[in-house]
Design a protein that fits this description.
Length: 440
Amino acid sequence: MIENKKILVLGMARSGYHVAKLLASKNKIIVTDRSEQKEELVNELTNLGVTFIKNDTGIELLDDSIDLLIKNPGIEPTHPCVKKAMELGIPIVNEMEVAYHYLPANTKIIGITGSNGKTTTTTILYNLLKLHNIDAILGGNIGYPLSEVVATVKDNSVLVLEISDHQLFNLQRFKTDISILTNLCPTHLDFHGNYENYINVKKKIFNHHDESNKAFINFKNEDSLKITKDIKSKKIYFNNEANYYDEKGIYIDGELVVSLKNIKIKGSHNYENILAALMGLKEFAFDKEIIKNYLQNFNGVEHRIEVVDANIEVDFYNDSKATNPTSTLTALKTMTKPTRLILGGMERNQDFNELNDEINIVSCIYAIGEVTDRIAEYALSKNIQCVKCYTLDKAMEYIKKDLVNGEAVLLSPASASWDQYDKFETRGEEFKKLVENLFE
């Protein structure tokens, strides 16, 4: 518990709002953000005794009277306020670390992280636990801050948390009982500086583990094996000779659990995510019929190769969650028709050459965002037609003119959305609306 502290919350968003509410009754809280916030949210915090101050950096609000800085996970470690807090010796944490200390002592925590697939894995595992009548609670990077859901956690609840590298960065005493690492590949290097820093932050999902805690690790991912060599957890592998998928189905301990024909979502990446989720599920319950029935009807995660119905003979896919080239490569592997690819967003020095193995399915690239010019250079090097659109709505205008029946249109940007959108979900929602209105 945190009491009688003066705390600065850097960055409002959903996590800052909820952690301020959690701590308000027994601490002096100041929340700062560079953007104006919804009046009703500010009024609610004010009524709880929380002060909200709009400020570009928050640095003027930070002095040695502050006991704790709670940083929004997306704020970079080079931020002026963060650097000043470090100089002053003020502890820096995030809302997940804070909320962890408000959980019942016997809460079981499953933490899922990885460069790709963590949202799908988290969603499948959570839903299957619920279907097995396990008191499971969903939270973390999937959209429900731990400080928001902590009040609903009871004795013996199972907390299923998607945990991003940004969240892991400022975790200190936080500890899971079970950790699942889906895979690792270079991403978010602008935040971490280099890949080595990134994977070492991901390793924190195993912090404070001993042999009583379990780590589920992707055996076919070299970097996952590399960073887990010296962890103290009991290591259990998937994508190996015992826990795997093939052209027939998915197997746990060498036994067929579900046939691929009974799985609605397709693609090797999805089978791998299901496999990881089933590994976690097996620790609590395991009914094959429940698993089969669920997977027969599971449509996948919104914004992740999501089918968008346009009522024409063209397939539209919303893959806005693809914020790095590895995710886009995965999406391209699922395409079976000539594909018009909408690519681009925030400049993060991403390497579009990572798409080379599957880029031949692409008939035209529509480049958007800060990386538009660099994408055009990449397309030229691959002898692929490219239209510089800069914005998503312009891309859709060009696509409307170019479309031919029997093709596919894929929004899979391989880039973060923050140059033009507040989050990738907003980008995906705009795409779906544009598709809906395309032929009105």
